[in-house]
Amino acid sequence: MTASDSAGDADCLYGLDPEVREVVADIESLGVPPWHALSVESARHIEDELFTDDTAGTDLPVGRTLDLAISGPDGDDLPLRVYRPEETPAPTLVFFHGGGWCLGTLDSADDLARRLCRRVGAVIVSVDYRLAPEHPFPAAIDDAIRALEWTRGYTAEFGGNGVVGVAGSSAGGNLAAAASLATPNDAAPAVQTLLYPITDRAFDTDSYESNADGPLLTREDMRHFWEQYLRSDVDAANPYAAPLRAGDLSVTAPGVVVTGECDPLRDDGAAYATRLADAGVGVDHLDYEGMCHGFLSFADDVDAADAAFDDLAEATSDRLAAATSNRKAKN
Fold this sequence. Notes:
This protein is α/β, with parallel strands linked by helices. It has one domain: Rossmann fold, CATH 3.40.50. 37% of the residues lie in helices and 18% in strands. It has an eight-stranded mixed beta sheet with strand order 1-2-4-3-5-6-7-8, sandwiched between helices. α4 packs across α10 and α5 crosses α6. The N and C termini lie far apart (38 Å).
C-alpha cells in the first residue's frame, strides 16, 4: 500500500495503476453511457450485468450461504443473504452494497461479500435495501438500521459470536456510517468499514475537481444519484443522509475507511476519517495511489487492489478482535 497526500492529478486517467487502466479500458470498450445518461431501469440492468459474477460461488467459496427475508420497516420483506465462514463462531458484519442508492443487488455485490467473509473471517449479512427513486431517503437508512438491529438479535443462529459491525461500499458506505451514527454509545457497532464512501453532497472538493470525469464514476453521475435519493434540499443537511454533517461523531463506531486517489469520492472518505480522528474515534484511513472508484471489485485482475483488500481485512479483523476481547472481559 502507498498513501497519497494529494487528491490526484488534473487528469487522473494517466495516473491510474496500469492494471486498473486495463480493466477500465475493457469496461469502457463496451460502450456503456455514463450512469446519469441512462434511465434508472436501464442502469440497474447494466450494473447487474456488469458486476454479477456467476463464478464467484466457485472461485470464492465460503462455508455456507443462506437467502432469507425479514420484515422491513414498511411491513414488506427485506431480503438478506448470509455468508458464513468455515470457522465459527465469528464476528458479524452487516454489509450494504453500492450503486448510488439507485442500483445494486445481492448478486452484483456477491463477490465483495464473499471476499469480506473469507478474508475477515466474519459472518456477512448482505442487505437488499430499498432503492431510490421509488423509495427515496430515508427508506434505505431505515432498512439499514432495521437489518442491523435484527442481526444483533439473531447473530448466534448463523454462527456469530455476538460482536456485530457494519460495512458498505460507496452508497453502502454511506448507509453503514449512518447506521452506526443511529446506534451510538453502548449500542454502536464494533467497526464501520467504509469502502470509498459517500459522506456529503459537496461537489467542489479537490477530488471532485480532479476526477470530475471518472473513470467509472463522474461528478454528473453523483449529482444524478443525489437527485434520485433525496426528497428535497433539506434532506442534504440531514446527518443520516450526509454523515459528514453530524455534529458529534465521538459516539460512533471505530472506522476503517478505504479511498482511492482517482475517485471523485476520495475526499468524502478522507474528510470523514479526519472527523473520526478529531472526535477521538479510532480510525484506519487506507488511501491508495492510482486507484479509481470501485477498485476493490477488481481484486482478481489488479494486484494492488488485491493487496488493498488484505489491508482492509486485517484492519477490520483487528477492530472486531478488540471488540470480541472486550465482550469476553465484560462477561
